[in-house]
Design brief:
Radius of gyration: 16 Å
Number of strands: 5
Strand content: 15-25%
Region (Disordered): 131-156
Biased composition (Basic and acidic residues): 144-156
Number of helices: 6
Largest sheet: 5 strands, mixed
Helix content: 25-40%
Length: 156
């Protein structure tokens, strides 16, 4: 049987020195569920799974379904190839049990708060190097301050 979770609210929040997103789901029986994840999660999934950083919908779909994955992930070996297919298979399995929707009657899609967050390709490259144990030749990309100050949705 498939359970439906409707996204009731999304907020960009600041936790200490970390930007994050808080997502509130309402299950079809009315029970509320929450998901809190670092804003950098989309960049990490892009780097780990080899997904185009511009493909926000796929990255968002993965991150929103991860809490509903029931099997353990395989141990990675510093490359995105071993992790990608098993993880996408676990996400597909979760999607057979769970449907995630947005409010049909809302004025705007609450996920737009996350969609406005740009996954910087240089940040993805830095993460891939880090995963492979390669030292970057330049300082890591940190666009959080610029992103936060230019986006009125971040709350302190």
């Amino acid at each position: 049987m498939q359970t439906t979770y409707t996204i009731a609210d999304v907020q960009a929040v600041r936790l200490g020195d970390m930007d994050a997103f808080r997502v509130v789901f309402r299950r079809d029986d009315g029970l509320l569920h929450g998901l809190l994840f670092p804003a950098d999660t989309l960049a990490w999934r892009s780097a780990e799974l080899g997904i185009d950083p511009a493909d926000t919908e796929t990255l968002l779909d993965i991150v929103l379904h991860e809490p509903f994955v029931t099997s353990d992930p395989p141990v990675g070996e510093g490359s995105q190839a071993p992790a990608r297919e098993p993880h996408l298979a676990r996400i597909a399995e979760a999607k057979r049990r769970v449907t995630i929707t947005t409010r049909p009657d809302g004025p705007a899609d609450p996920l737009d708060v996350i969609r406005r967050h740009v996954v910087h390709p240089d940040r993805v490259r830095d993460i891939q190097h880090r995963l492979r144990g390669i030292r970057p030749t330049e300082p890591p990309i940190d666009d959080s301050a610029t992103r936060r100050h230019n986006d009125p949705h971040w709350t302190a």
